Amino acid sequence: MFSEAYKNCNLMVYKDIGIDKVPIEQLTDYRKHSHDKVQLIYVEKGHAVIIVENIFYTIFENYYIWIPAHVQHKTISNPNSILTSLYIDSRLCINIKPGVNIMLATPLLIELINKCASNDEAFFNTKALRHIAELVLLEVTISTKIEISLPLPTDKRLISICKKLLEDPLHLHTLDELLIDIPISYRHAIRLFKSETGMCFNKWRTTLKLHVSASMISRGKSSTYVAYETGYKNLSGFSAAFKKQFGTSPKNYIRT
Known about the structure:
Blueprint: E1 12-14, E2 17-24, E3 28-29, E4 38-45, E5 47-52, E6 55-60, E7 63-67, E8 74-77, E9 81-88, E10 101-104, H1 107-116, H2 121-124, H3 128-141, E11 149-151, H4 156-167, H5 175-178, H6 186-197, H7 201-218, H8 223-229, H9 235-246, H10 250-253
Antiparallel strand pairs: 1-2, 2-9, 3-8, 4-7, 4-9, 5-6, 5-8, 6-11, 7-10
Helix pairs in contact: 1-3, 8-9
């Protein structure tokens, strides 16, 4: 059975394939759950956060996350987002990389996902859907895994800071500003953040911005535009940081 978290969604099921397309009008925080099928979550618009074993994966437009069956996870969808989920019997997925994976959707995969989510009942009740799903799986097998995950602190006060950044990752808040109304001192927050995540706060925040920049570049924004939007003073500094994070330059990112 599908999780109770999705019991009110317009979920269509055909044998071993389920499809759900959800427009998000407000911040939506689903409780922790799992599915007995593999779940592919594609972000058509906006972004979502998927938390698995205290690691959170930020999924931006044109990306998707692959979650194996029976893996406990929690989904936080931001306002004005559109997510499409495909639920596929794990017996069809034996050639897929194990574990939770984030990948950049190819143009073909996007078209296939949109076709699956078209709500065309005549199409939905034919064997064509099964063939489309097989093509989806083929695209997934040849996709390159993207490392865009970040460790999440367990302290509720620090989680509040992270949520503020996730809601507006490009805003240039100082840590002092982020700590307003949060009962923790600046120094204690810095020490505790490093202790719980293994990363200093500034590194964590920079990594988040680089994740955002990758999404912007994948949607056709120029490197110069993205560099300044994400707070870099010059293109060379941004390009160096981007290559260190993703192993390739912004210019070559879409080709990888």
